[in-house]
Amino acid sequence: MSEETLKITPLHAAHIAAGARMVPFAGYSMPVQYKDGVLKEHLWTRTHAGLFDVSHMGQARLRGEAPLTAFQRVTPGDFKGLKAGKQRYSLLLNASGGIIDDLMAARPDDDGLFVVVNGACKDNDFKVMGDVLAGQVEIERLENRALLALQGPEACAVLAAHIPQATSMVFMDSAALEGFGTDVLLSRSGYTGEDGYEISIPAHEAERVWNLLLNDERVRPIGLGARDSLRLEAGLPLYGHDVDESVSPIEADLAFAVSPRRREAADFPGAGRILGELAGGATRKRVGLSVLEGAPAREGAEIADVDGKVIGVVTSGGFAPSLSAPIAMGFVPPAFASPGTRLRVIVRGKPQLAEVTAMPFVPHRYVRKL
Amino acid sequence: MRFTKDHEWVELDGDIATVGITAYAADQLGDVVFVETPDLGKSLKSGDAMAVVESVKAASDVYAPLSGEVVEANGTLGDAPETVNDQPEGLGWFAKIKIADRAEFDALMDRPAYEAFLGSL
User: Which terminus, N or C, of chain B has the lesser number of Cβ atoms within 10 Å?
Assistant: First the structure.
């Protein structure tokens, strides 16, 4: 895609002013890093607070007679049981149980469901939801809203100066409130493994809010490069790399997103395949890998057993700044998926020792209770 | 010191060429976290991939700026890859190559030419 056809977020000028290196991502011109560079930005987020522009992601309201019930037709989550003020991670599934996208769906208020999906998938996601749920929900895409993420151990204290109520939320709480002199859809969640918030605000307020937050010396802007290394350490899959339409929630090690009530009812897309895999029928599983020697193993690197037989592939990998070591995620048959299993990753033709490692690689620091 | 359009530098001492990546290249890569240097005795043609330098987010090839045989690799980069960022055109060198043809060296850009090239990017 050429530069001219890339979309920009409401913070484009602010990124340029901050010295960002811009790259094409999900059809947008996005900051991959600022002046500090990926390594320092990563470590800053783990020790202070990092501010991310994720306005390329798709935000929408789903409204209707019974939007929660309707949403269950395209996901394996228990949305009928989703209380106001709560958010849930879920998966948009195709008829064969493959993952069309992963998403967050919340009830910040009584105005239906507030859904956030991946930027690269958003047009298709909302088309699929619109097609399957035609006549049951109205989808209003919130293209006039920006989305910021404030992540890290100091995120709560930073945000509390602007939105005192933020301190009384726990992980996966969602709220519609007044903050920064505007209307905010706030959730205590993120994609780094750290405590933090995702902050939806009107697009025309984005630059003002961005600058307000950056005025706090505990906050630095963080690009997509560090966003990727942070989520990798946190064991969180990246759609389009670790997960795609061929991969089921069970293969992706996202069984927690298939609610017990829905398993019993077997009433979600691809239930036959997914329940079969839950009963032991999966042929591959997403695992974490610690690369114990040599170069980082990156997306596409083959995974072999100790005898050299290729058994799988790395779907994302790189250097983990918090561990000062290479880590990866990839798919292997279940027989090789137990933590401690010794494997090889093939990097530029050379087999290197790796070990299946329980994820997250770096412990999550979500605030689950106050 | 001479330079390539792929942002390698070469310093020649007799028939031994020391090769590294330029300060510009190191800055573009960002923090270097892993370096794979060439094996001793490896025979290189100008333009061959001779080493790999990796940042947090990507791996990049380093190309041989001239033909010859690898006679030394910078072993300190294994434990201290950040040297490539700290002193790209000094202690962060990658390998020493015994060159076959001095004319290849003479054909590379000198510093003013390289800086003019950078200005054109």
Answer: C
Comparing alpha-carbon positions, the chain B residue that sits nearest to A225 is B57
The domain A3-54+144-233 is classified under which CATH number: 1.10.260.30, 3.30.1360.120, 3.40.50.20, 3.40.50.300?
A: 3.30.1360.120
Cβ distance of B56 and A348 shorter than 8 Å = no
Could you give all domains of chain B from N- to C-terminal order, each with its CATH number? 2-99 (2.40.50.100)
SS3 call for A209: helix
Local structure of residue A278 (DSSP, 8 states): I
Residues of A in contact with B59 (CB under 8 A): 295-296, 298
Q: Does B36 touch chain A (CB under 8 A)?
A: yes
- Measured between alpha carbons, how far is A79 from A88 in angstroms, rounded to an integer? 8
Contacts of B36 in chain A (CB under 8 A): 295, 348
Please state which architecture CATH assigns to domain A283-357: Beta Barrel (2.40)
Residue type for position A305: D
Question: What is the pLDDT, as a whole number, of residue B57?
Answer: 85
Model ipTM value: 0.89
Helices marked H in A48-132: 67-71, 122-132
CB pair distance less than 8 Å for A32 and B57 = yes
- With a cut of 60, say whether residue A131 has pLDDT above it: yes
Strand spans (E) along chain A: 21-25, 28-33, 49-53, 58-64, 87-93, 99-106, 113-117, 137-141, 145-151, 174-179, 182-187, 196-202, 219-221, 285-291, 302-304, 310-320, 325-332, 342-347, 350-357
For residue A278, what are its two tokens? 């839950």
CB contact under 8 A, B59 and A298: yes
- For an interface test with B, give the residue of A45, A298, A319 to mutate (most B CBs within 10 A): A319
